Each structure stands twice: as structure tokens, then as C-alpha cells.
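Predict structure. Chain length: 201.
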Amino acid sequence: MKLFVTQGSPYARKIRVVLAEKRIDCEIVMLANLSDPDSPLPAFNPLGKVPTLVLDDGSGLYDSPVIAAYLDSKTPVAHLIPQASHIEVKRWEALADGICDATVAVVMEGRRMPEKQDSAAAERQQLKVERGLRVMAHDLGDSKWCLGEAFSLADIAVGCTLGYISLRMPALAWQEQYPNLARLYEQLMKRPSFQNTVPPG
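Prediction complete.
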């Protein structure tokens, strides 16, 4: 198998963490530019997005929730989506991915020419980020992990999202607002899977 990623994608980081936690060997193909007309990515994913996992038969899997579920079913090592709490794990993942989507939208709006920026649109997306973080913090409460005492894909998804917000929206200072999320992130960053996938600043 091989996994197409970009350095800064939180969705791709999620899958790289899953691979590490599951101890699955996989070639990582780091793409510098998704808009490169010579990119091999569209041959495996018509949407041209990362992450895309290419299986041994040459077929492509996308996007990150599908890939994560596939990898978790591939080996019994360190189950990250327990059957008993499958829906709860996927709910956490959906919230984390949605916050990432909104963060990406804010970042992309800020990269437009000043005269073309839509501040109202950016504010709407930032509000989604802030609401999402508030719900994450509420649902985590005093628990060690998102599902209580069990480390899971929920924690991986949340950790990758928090890391991405720190990178792209540092002024949000979520660590100060939500110390329980900061504690969770600190725990995650002690794991080699997170340490080895930190995107460049």
C-alpha cells in the first residue's frame, strides 16, 4: 500500500497516526503541490484530494474516515474503532473533521486578495470552529480520553484538529479557553505517532 499526503493536511496526519498506532507498514508519498498537472494522485482519486490510500491491487480509497475504518479493520492490533462505541467514535471524528473544514475555509479566505475577501464568510466559519471546540471540551469533560479510559480514533481525530488550529489560527488560543482539551493534546503529543507527524510551522 501507499498513502498520498501533503505535509500540512490534518486529514492526512490522522491517517499517518492511525498507521503508526496500528503498526501497519505503508509507503508515504509526500506531495508538494496538489494542483500539479503531472501529479499521480488523480489516477487514484478523481477528486485529487489527500489523503488517498492506494491498495495493493491498485485501487484507491478516500477520504480519511473511509481510510481510517479500512485500516482499523485490517489488523486486530490496537483497535481504534471499538464495535461497542462505533457511532460515538465516528461522531467525534465527524466533529473534528468539520472543525478542520471550517478552519481551512478561514485560512483560504485570508489568502484571497484583500479586495476579494469576504469577512462575513470568514466569521461564519470561525464561529463553527469556536462552537465545535466548545462542544468538544464539554463532551470531553474530566475524562482521560474522548471515550473515557479507552484511546481511540476519536482522540486521533481531535488531536490532529487541535494541532491544525494551533498552526493556522494561533490567535484563537484554544489552550487557554479549554484546559481539558490542552491536557488531552499534551497526552497525545507524548505518543511517537503524534511526535513523528507534526507538520512544519
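Summary: The chain has two domains: 2-74, 83-191.
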